[in-house]
Amino acid sequence: MSDRKLIRPSMNEMMDKFPTRTTGRRKQVPAEQTNAESFYYLKQMQNRTAMVVVLTDGTELKGWIEWYDKNCLKLNRVDAPNLLLFKHTVKFMFKEEELRSRRRRRPPASR
Q1: So where does this one cross the membrane (predicted)?
Q2: Which residues pair with 94 in a beta bridge?
Q3: What whole-number distance in Å separates Cα of residue 61 and Cα of residue 69?
Q4: pTM of the model
Q5: Segment holding 37, helix H or strand E
Q6: Hey, what domains does the chain have and what are their CATH numbers?
Q7: Deepest of 35, 39, 85, 108, by most Cβ within 10 A of its Cβ?
Q8: CA 64 from centroid of its chain's CA atoms
Q9: Which ranges of the chain have pLDDT less than 50?
Q10: What's the DSSP call for residue 22?
Q11: Residue 8 has what pLDDT?
Q12: Measured CA distances, 105 to 2, 92, 95, 111 (Å)
C-alpha cells in the first residue's frame, strides 16, 4: 500500500489562515453605579432644598432631605413629624419651587 495524504488540513494550517480574536481588547462592563443619585442627594441636602416627594399611592410630602442610604430617605418637615421613607415607595420627587412656578404659569380657567 502507498502512503495516503490526509485531505483534511492540519490544525496548524487552520490557525495560520484564521487568526484568533486575541488582538482586540474586550469591552469593559459598564459601572453598576454612576453616583448621579448620590450627587443629587448631597446637593439637595447641603442646600436644604425644599422638596416634594410623591409616593406610589399618590401622597405628596413636603420637606427637605436630611440623610439617605441605599434603601431609605429621611425627610424633615416643618410643623409635622420627620419621616423615614423607603426608596421603593417613592414614585418621584422634585423641588418645591418648581411646584410654585408651575402654579404661577398656569393660565386662568375659562368658564
Answers
A1: none
A2: 52
A3: 19
A4: 0.62
A5: helix 36-47
A6: 49-104 (2.30.30.100)
A7: 85
A8: 21
A9: none
A10: G
A11: 72
A12: 97, 22, 16, 18
Q: How far is CA 42 from the centre of its chain?
A: 15
| pLDDT score at 51 | 95
Complete edge-to-edge strand list for the sheet that includes strand 72-76: 83-86, 72-76, 60-68, 51-55, 90-95
Nearest alpha-carbon partner for 95 in 40, 17, 55, 58? 40
Query: Which pLDDT value is given to residue 49?
Result: 95
pLDDT at 62: 95
* 53 within 8 A of 90, measured Cβ to Cβ: yes
Do 56 and 50 touch, CB atoms closer than 8 A?
Answer: no
The grid coordinates listed for 96 are 418645591
